[in-house]
Amino acid sequence: MGIERAFSVLRKLPLRYRGASGGRVRERLRHAFWAALIALGMSTVVLLEPVDQFMWLIQSKMGGHKASGDIVFVGANDVMNDPNLPHRRVELAKALDELERRGVGKVYLDIVFDEPAGSKYDNRLADAIAALGPRVALADQIRINDDDQQIVKRTSAAIGRDASRVLVTRQEGNYFGLVWTARYGYEIDGKIVPTLSAVLGGKPDGGTGFFPIDYGFPAPTIQTLDFKDIVEAEPVARRVDLAGKTIVIGHGRQASSARQIVPNGGNAPSSYVPIYAGETLKSGRTGFLSGIAVTLLVYALLGSLLLLAPVRKRRWFGYAAVGLAIPFALIATARLGIRIEASYAIAFLIAYLLFRSRTRWKRRVSLVNQDTGLPTLRALEARLARDHVTHGHVVIARIHNYERVLKTLPAESRGEYILKLVDRLRAADPQLAVFCDGHHLGWLAPTDETDGLVEHLEGLRAIFAAPVQAAGHSIDVGITFGVAAVENDPAGRMRAAIAAAEETSEASEPIKVADTGSTSDSLWDISLRARIDQAMEAGEIYCVYQPKIDAETNTMAGVEALVRWHDPAKGFIQPLHFIQQCEKAGRMDHLTRYVLQSACSAGTLLHFRGTAISMAVNISATLLGDMRIVGMVRNILQATRFDPKYLILEVTETARIADLQTAASILSELRALGVRISFDDFGVGAANFEALYELPFDELKIDRLFVSNIASDSKAKAIVASLASMGRAARITVVAEGVEDPQDINILREIGCQQLQGYAFSRPVPLSNILEMQNFPETGQRANMV
Ligand code: C2E
Ligand code: CA
Ligand code: CA
Fold first, then answer.
1. Span 466-475, mean pLDDT?
2. Substitution site in 543, 588, 652, 682 for ligand 1 pocket (most atoms within 8 Å of beta carbon)
């Protein structure tokens, strides 16, 4: 089958194997196809023979049966055919006489007497042979020389007279010295002469073909007698009943040049090879499965697995099964006497494995997006650099609500959703190369005309007005664009386009063109986003705790958990910075869950140790858009058994609350759990009275902008004082944060702030330090900086 045709078959796969996950199925099938091709290619150049031989040795060990016992080997440990030692021929003649007397069935003489040793001796031997009549056959040795000619070394006619002849070869041992196949016969002068192997196996008419030799039984089960014992009619040998047996007489392993390595038997007399071959034919254990057949079989198995089990878990089960099938098959076939060439199937699986790991690795180094199979923005960056692009614009499309869509869609439909969006982006240019990273889609627009491009993007936005269908859902798409001219710094400009896209908003600025030459988002930031999850897992992200002090009693009323990231390579990363990256990567709720979990566990521990203080956790206002945060807090409180009334949620960035009504109902739900809500950074940004009025707060934290200036600036002092009295009136706890100077402590106390927090008391410190802290002396105490 031609490769082209094979691919066209792949292309015609049913629709259910199309699309994102279908693309994966086809990719796997393609890998399996190439792996099979490689394995079969290797088989044509017999590259893996050594592997097979090794496995055959193991198979021979596992054969587990016995020789028939019909064939008896009589080994001579002296060289019998040396013309200078003629009396040995007389000994052989005596042995033959003895065998004749004991009524043996058949005698094969696997020693060639091609040189005369004196007529007296030769005649004696000839007579003994002739006396056996049709019961004897002489084995002539055949060898094929370098010119492909058959050279036969025969016992001379003077000795053999008209005894029948068979052939043996001492040649077929391979580079490991092992003989794995035997022949049925050779064609000599137009006539087929059977081999000793074929005759012993009862198949003298087998033609000139080959068959595998089965070594599945140990050499000692071949009955073997010492030549001397026959001649001298020793009692041992006499007890063995030879009547009707088939006898092979040959040189024993002590006679030089008559040895042969035999699997399962080590160094054996070379006559063992035809004996093993004969036993193989007798038992019918001549099955053979070629490497090609085995490979195709495993290929079919893997192929159907890939089609039937696109789900990862089932597929891995399947892989394990296919992997185990090979040793299983080796054992089973060894028992059945079928030799298999499994090496190519193994090579096929290894090649497939390598293909798969290479792809997975490539995905991991993130040049390909996992969900869609599209190249990532990093790949776009690499391409811009490789092609030395200096013209055109990088366009980054930002998909709004992507995180939410991901939550709604089943995992396997996420790719489908993105690919549908990509289809629309390609409305004008079906060949457009689109790159994809999370909620960003990017491409290179070759035009240098910024205005024209913006117009084109406006047109694209119109195409996205209609909802997209994915997994049975109809999804409204919010899409905005960031654009940057490539200029001379493709990587920097791509990041500028990403930053521009992040600053877009559907309502006010759906398309934003980055300023020329500004590189606001560094590559480091992009890799930071990719690393967040990993860092949490590795414990590089952790919490430190800063005490909140009761102004009246000067005792620790609680602590605030503050997140830290220590990267082993880059060192300490500013929390505000990576929190921002976390948000861009859509991992904010992940990080919050992580911090809540750590903080509540720490709180439980503090309580257990007798320090019943509150635990404050920062919650970004962006998480107050839906109810997930409520479930998260409830679950964590349950899991950590932390008493809700000691948990304070500090809402940061209040200005970013999109909808006060929604936020109010979420905060009420949270309060219903028993936790307290704090208004962080009050007074700066757009942290305003409207929010304070609309939202149910229990605590107000006055921003350090005012606190740090109370001693020097009367206006700041007045603001803090009025906030403190307002808090008292509204029954809200007022906390002054950022108290750096110990001298400010008294002022804040007089003004009426209930709690104080800042370096004047302690920097944020590890939990162990909090456990050691008790009360704070009047002057304040500076703990280790973290
Ligand atoms: P924040 O909630 O206002 O936290 C107080 C910040 O002020 C902390 O900075 C703290 O180290 C610092 N600080 C405390 N006392 C003093 C002082 O006397 N003088 C000065 N100059 N600074 C003081 P940090 O840890 O860098 O955190 C910065 C911001 O990052 C936090 O401001 C908070 O908005 C955010 N953040 C920290 N951890 C988390 C978290 O787990 N989740 C969320 N969503 N935001 C967090
Ligand atoms: Ca805070
Ligand atoms: Ca604050």
1. 85
2. 652
